[in-house]
Sequence to fold (394 residues):
Amino acid sequence: MVFAKYLLPVLAATQVAFAAKCGDTKISSQSDADGIASCSTVKGDITVSSDFSGELSLASIEKVEGDLTVNNVTQMTSFTADSISEITGTFKLASLTTLSNLNFAKLSSVGSLEFSVLPALESLSFDTGITKAGDVYIADTKLGSLDGITLDTVGAFDIENNRYLKTVNVNNLKNATGDITFAANYDSLQIELPNLGTGKNLTCRNISSISVPSLKTLSGTLGFYGTDFKTFIAPNLTSTGDLVFMNNKQLSNISMAALTKVNGGFQISRNDKLQEIDLPKLQKVTGAIDFSGTFNTVEFGSLEEVAGGFNLQSTDGKFNCDTFDKMRGDVIRGTYKCVAKEDNPTTSSGKSGTSSSSSGSSSSSTSSGAAVANGASVGAAGVAAFFYAIAQLV
Fold:
């Protein structure tokens, strides 16, 4: 009994010491990292001090129940963790100007992934592949691809300012609950999302191709701005929020044969090589239709309702407004304007509708005003998307 009296406090103290050792950890040297090598699970955050220099290795740790943060560690050249398979919090690497090697061979799950300002990092060594992540943000890196990111589902997926990024191929991604954004990467970025079926917003700028053969529905905006692709094909897309094609100078074909509903505004402008617009199953647009450009044909074989306004202006003298004139007041509920052979076509806000034309005066129909005609309304995200698109022309 006396032995037990002294043994129990010793065991308790040992457990407290072990818990502290495998809890929140700040690493200033490799010896600090070695100090938690006996922990299969770290129940807390791991933070690397800005004073760290050289190569860092986290051995034996399999799980981090918290964040793993390396921020402004400008002298770190390599970061390896052979056994970590899961990080429940945020895996953040930021402002690591000399980091050239990143090897997490077994990592498959992160709470979120934030990589930014990694100018020396050319590849990701994620051999198992990250299949699960809440949000993914990758910006200002030297990555040439995102090999090793093999997501099934994701929240937001934001890829920006990666000037060497030539390909993005996320074969397994089926659903995104947040925004998918590609902007200011390599000018000829090719995007493959072969199994993406549903999502929120999908926005692309400065890309050369995108493949979304399985995409069926988007609850938010589908927008393309300043791209270099010639064709956009979404054979299974049935509905989306705001739909915008703006300033895509090589775009000559839009194919959305299954599209039936646009839950917001629909804008096409400054796509000078686009001659024909054919949406055979489109039935309803809850916001405004705002088309301006050089096209000679617009076909809506099934259109039943445009709840907002209608602005359609073309430079082509062969274009005919008769079909749409007959829809005014019945199918088209808001303000109306249709003009053929317009030398300077404009959007409903009065901005230039082609790359060669100058801005004209505002027409009677605007994206936001027309969208609320006759009691119809467009959500804040839809209006914001239109104002953003219009701002690009200023």
